[in-house]
Amino acid sequence: TLCYVSSCTDPYANLAFEDWILRNSDPESYVLYLWRNRPSIVIGRNQNPWKECNLALMAERDVVLARRSSGGGAVYHDLGNTNYTVVMPREAFARDMCAEMVAKALQDSGIPAYVNARHDVAVDGLKISGSAFKLTKLRAFHHGTMLIDADLTRLHGCLKSQAHDCIEAKGVASVPSPVVNLRDYSLSLDHSSFCDSVLRQFADTFAPPSEATVVDTLSDPRTADERRRIQTWDWLYGQTPEFTHRFYRSFAWATVFASITARHGRITDASISTAESALQPPPGTRLLFADIAARLKDVRYHPSDISEGLMSFIDSDNPRASELCDWLVSNLSFPTV
Fold first, then answer.
1. pLDDT, tens digit, 9 for 90 and up, residues 276-323
2. CB 222 within 8 A of CB 18
3. Rounded to a whole number, what is the distance in angstroms from the first to the last CA of the chain?
4. Strand (E) or helix (H) holding 248
5. Which of 243, 248, 225, 252 has the alpha carbon at shortest distance from 320?
6. Is the pLDDT of residue 226 over 90?
7. The dihedral of CA 114, 116, 119, 120: what is its sign?
8. What's the whole-model pTM score?
9. What is the Cα–Cα distance from 264 to 300, expressed in whole angstroms?
10. How far, in Å, are 53, 160, 205 from residue 157 at the CA level?
11. Counting runs of H as helices and runs of E as strands, what totals does the chain give?
12. Which one of 120, 138, 235, 303 counts the least CB within 10 Å of its CB?
């Protein structure tokens, strides 16, 4: 058995080191990895950042976006949250085993923690730790969060996209749960003491590890390539499963509906139409709609790409074209964080 404790707070380096453990540790070994990140939202592998996150608010609050390789929902990390990962042989994996281990570590610290039906660690019906899992041919890992003294005010709103109700997504949706910090139950528990408690319980559950190894995952050459990969737009946004974003607006000349479908970060289909009404749109409007929709196809779902694709309409002498494209860009231009 092994134990690593990260001294780094970069979410991409820490996630990359977790991946390195999964891929390179002895297939029969048990490894505990303890780490925490600067303020960040970490979404599941198959989630939609435009639907799950308020990207504008995250940019305003200096909260970065990361995507992990495991499934599950979106979670908030900061230095008041400690993450734990247990990597083990696949045949030994059981869904609640590590959550029960962490709950027992908290119980030993005087906190009445338990594992609920959603495999979360909770206290008094309030979630303090969420979990996700990944299985490979020979290995498995369970990783989870632990809210010790997280800045829940900074979190508030970051997991509520303004476009949430306008986006129909095929990916995994998060299930919001009421949360609480362990600080409300213990004034003495902190990152260091939580790590010590989990390490003791890990030793009792599996086998005593050699002395915990402190790693600077940011400067570790074993994480460099993976860290670069998971910071790219193609991973953070381009990994997103197919989704459709629908919205509308009433202009002076017509009520217009837009439906934009994207897959893996590129627009695959776009349609623009008017409402069925006695008021007919001005001549040439439907042809304009078709031209704009055609220009959006195969464009990356990124503010600069969308603006560039529609620039000829935005700068045109046709006031309806300019007004329409300004509206489309404003609805499709989410900041990247």
1. 765 677 788 889 999 999 999 999 999 899 999 999 888 888 888 999
2. no
3. 37
4. strand 243-250
5. 252
6. yes
7. negative
8. 0.93
9. 9
10. 8, 5, 38
11. 12, 16
12. 138
Burial of 273 (0-12, 13-18, 19+ CB in 10 A): middle
Q: How confident is the model at residue 335 (pLDDT cuts 50, 70, 90)?
A: confident
What gap in Å lies between CA 297 and CA 56, rounded to an integer? Answer: 25
The residue type of 167 is I
> Of 83, 102, 74, 4, nearest to 38 (Cα)?
83
Residue 184: exposed, middle, or buried by beta-carbon count in 10 A (0-12, 13-18, 19+)?
middle
Burial 185-195 (b: 16+ CB within 10 A, else e): bbeebebeebb
Average pLDDT of the residues in 197-208: 92
Burial string for 149-169 (b: 16+ CB within 10 Å, else e) reads: bbbeebbeebbebebbebbeb
pLDDT in tens, 238-290: 999 999 999 999 998 889 999 999 999 999 999 999 977 656 777 888 899 99
Q: Which amino acid is at 291?
A: D
pLDDT tens, residue by residue, 33-89: 999 999 999 999 999 999 999 999 999 999 999 999 999 899 999 999 999 999 999
Q: Are 72 and 83 in contact (CB under 8 A)?
A: no
Question: Half-sphere exposure of 317 toward its Cβ, with a 13 Å CA cutoff?
Answer: 0
Reduced to 3 states (helix: H, G, I; strand: E, B; else coil), residue 85 is strand
> 10 Å Cβ neighbour count for 139?
22
| Spatial separation of the C-alpha atoms in residues 24 and 321, rounded to whole Å | 55
> Which value, to the nearest 10 degrees, does the dihedral of the CA atoms of residues 324, 326, 327, 328 take?
90
Token pair of 25 as six digits: 């540790």
